[in-house]
Design brief:
alpha+beta, Nuclear Transport Factor 2, Chain: A, nine-stranded mixed sheet
Length: 234
């Protein structure tokens, strides 16, 4: 029969074991990542987002771009000389929302990584090219909502003409205008993106109410650190 002293020693040993387990749970991934090299740590960081989810702040949008589900695959990692920066190249399948807009993508994602606090982390976000495309699309949606030709022009590539033509003129005439993107489906290439947009325009012309839905394809090209529309804005 165990004495109170035996139970006390057993309890103390159990507390020590639990404390050691907690320390291992906290530091083992970092220790193993360091032992296996940055490639494994970076791949693990990307794959972890699949269970944690992605929430990406879009400039000018009241709500973030949120994933419902996403998957990184075919991940390769290139570590720069010096071992403090790296880039992960991967395919990304993404389904999510930006407010009321459905967003889906498939294609190539490039994710710069840096070392912070002894761990490899994305320099900005785990999906920077997707975020750049959605940012351009949201700025364009707002410019159409406001019929702002100058704002549209700032989204144009070097060889893209400004807005004009019958569709633009009709849009300008709509009062109480509401231009909504119901869905953006994005195909990301290495330096380009192709987007299928499902849109809805509501409001009123002098002679009739307007409630029109449509679909269009948009092309964007990577210029510097952003995506711009080319060859057209509409």
């Amino acid at each position: 029969m165990r004495t109170p002293q035996d139970w006390s020693r057993l309890g103390g040993g159990l507390i020590v074991l639990l404390a050691l387990a907690g320390v291992l749970a906290l530091f083992a991934p970092r220790i193993l990542g360091a032992a296996a090299g940055p490639e494994l740590e970076i791949i693990t960081a990307l794959k972890r987002t699949e269970t944690e989810g992605l929430s990406l702040g879009v400039p000018g949008a009241p709500q973030p771009l949120k994933s419902r589900q996403h998957r990184f695959a075919r991940i390769t990692v290139n570590v720069e000389p010096g071992g403090r920066r790296a880039e992960a190249l991967a395919t990304l399948d993404f389904e999510g929302t930006l407010g009321e807009t459905r967003v889906g993508t498939a294609g190539v994602e490039r994710v710069p990584f840096v070392v912070r606090g002894g761990a490899w982390v994305p320099e900005t976000t785990a999906a920077p090219r997707l975020l750049a495309v959605v940012t351009a699309l949201e700025f364009r949606r707002k410019a159409l909502q406001e019929a702002d030709a100058a704002a549209m022009g700032r989204l144009a590539g070097p060889e893209t003409p400004g807005v004009g033509g019958p569709e633009w003129e009709m849009l300008r005439q709509v009062r109480a205008r509401g231009y909504r993107a119901e869905a953006w489906y994005v195909r990301l290439e290495r330096d380009d993106a192709v987007v299928t947009e499902h849109w809805r325009l509501q409001g009123a012309l002098p002679a009739r109410p307007v409630d029109t839905r449509g679909q269009r394809q948009l092309s964007l090209s990577w210029r510097g650190d952003e995506f711009l529309f080319s060859p057209s804005l509409m």
